[in-house]
């Protein structure tokens, strides 16, 4: 099983201090499986108040986390770095990364966390310069608190009409935070556009020649951009994106294997099943059954 398949399959390993229960949490989560297929969506808004010292370690996060502490301090450790999050200092934890946090002298603390998902999230973060752990120093926090409050309120009524509003406000928040980063943190615009095109066009030709004609750039240049920015090829990146989308559809929908194969642009159900088994070690049906058994 590949690393990408393993991360989608298994639950994140986590450990925490014995005082983990000494907390008051208010949380709203989008529970409709349709949301997981959206390009971008707020998965959960969590508001926590803790009265005692505490630590927590996670092997990885499935979602982007936007962490804000209006009261108290937390020290986060990741990638051999240490950052204290408090007040106007905001931390963004990208999906797939390990991290650890612990209380410092200031106890109690209040913490707001927005968990963000979406099939296009990796490309959006790359475009905005947030694909790695990112610290944003804001001039004020009133605007940020308004975003948290609005998203928390929108998650109360989970109707299909809320999906575009939630996605739009979530993207707006990311753009707002990106505005306080150094300009040279962001990726080249052309690479970001090509990458987003690959992520959202599984059913269309995304070979080098097609990409070159569409974006008026040589195939060699496109290959060089992917090698420099992602250390991979456009074809391999498309396969990885399509595999992740297949996992999400198998886990969160009742679509048949054939319907998923058609949706993802495979020439046949057999071709899709063979490619999926090559990457995961399981057939699509076996992967779906195992995932649902694990989720209870």
Using the coordinates shown, work out and report the CATH topology of the largest domain: Jelly Rolls
Distance N to C terminus: 22 Å
Corresponding CATH architecture of the largest domain:
Sandwich
User: What is the residue-mean pLDDT, rounded to a whole number?
Assistant: 83
What is the radius of gyration? 20 Å
- Give the number of domains: 2
Shape: globular
The CATH C-level class name of the largest domain: Mainly Beta
Query: Main beta sheet, described?
Result: 6 strands, antiparallel
Structural class: alpha+beta
Number of helices: 11
Series of secondary-structure elements, N-terminal to C-terminal: HEEEEEEEEEEHEHHHHHHHHH
| Strand percentage | 15-25%
Poorly predicted ranges:
1-9
CATH H-level name of the largest domain... which superfamily? Regulatory protein AraC
- Percent helix: 40-55%
Count of β-strands: 11
User: Order of strands side by side in the largest beta sheet?
Assistant: 2-3-10-5-8-11
Explain this structure to me?
This protein has 296 residues and is α+β, with helices and mostly antiparallel strands. The chain has two domains: 13-185, Regulatory protein AraC (Jelly Rolls, Sandwich), CATH 2.60.120.280; 189-295, Arc Repressor Mutant, subunit A (Orthogonal Bundle). Helices cover 43% and strands 22% of the residues. The chain has eleven helices and eleven strands. Strands 2-3-10-5-8-11 form a six-stranded antiparallel β-sheet, covered by helices on one side. Strands 1-4-9-6-7 form a five-stranded antiparallel β-sheet, with no helix packed on it. It starts with a helix and ends with a helix.
């Amino acid at each position: 099983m590949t690393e990408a398949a393993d991360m989608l399959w298994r639950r994140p390993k986590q450990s925490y201090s014995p005082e983990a229960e000494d907390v008051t949490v208010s949380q709203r989560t989008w529970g409709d499986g349709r949301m997981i297929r959206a390009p971008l969506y707020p998965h959960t808004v969590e508001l926590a108040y803790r009265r005692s010292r505490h630590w927590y370690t996670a092997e990885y996060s499935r979602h982007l986390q936007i962490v804000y502490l209006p009261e108290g301090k937390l020290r986060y450790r990741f990638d051999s770095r240490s950052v204290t999050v408090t007040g106007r200092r905001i931390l963004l934890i990208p999906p797939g990364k390990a991290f650890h946090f612990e209380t410092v002298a200031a106890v109690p603390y209040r913490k707001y966390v927005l968990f963000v998902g979406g099939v296009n999230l990796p490309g959006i973060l790359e475009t905005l310069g947030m694909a790695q752990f990112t610290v944003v120093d804001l001039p004020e926090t009133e605007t940020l608190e308004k975003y948290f409050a609005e998203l928390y309120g929108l998650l109360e009524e989970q109707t299909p009409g809320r999906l575009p509003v939630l996605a739009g406000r979530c993207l707006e928040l990311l753009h707002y935070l990106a505005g306080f980063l150094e300009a040279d943190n962001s990726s080249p615009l052309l690479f970001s556009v090509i990458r987003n095109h690959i992520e959202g066009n599984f059913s269309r030709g995304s070979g080098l020649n097609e990409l070159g004609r569409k974006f008026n750039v040589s195939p060699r240049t496109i290959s060089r951009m992917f090698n420099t920015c992602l250390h991979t090829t456009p074809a391999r990146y498309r396969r990885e994106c399509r595999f992740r989308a297949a996992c999400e559809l198998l886990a969160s929908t009742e679509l048949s294997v054939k319907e998923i194969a058609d949706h993802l642009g495979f020439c046949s159900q057999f071709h899709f099943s063979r490619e999926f088994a090559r990457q995961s070690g399981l057939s699509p049906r076996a992967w779906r059954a195992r995932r649902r058994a694990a989720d209870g």
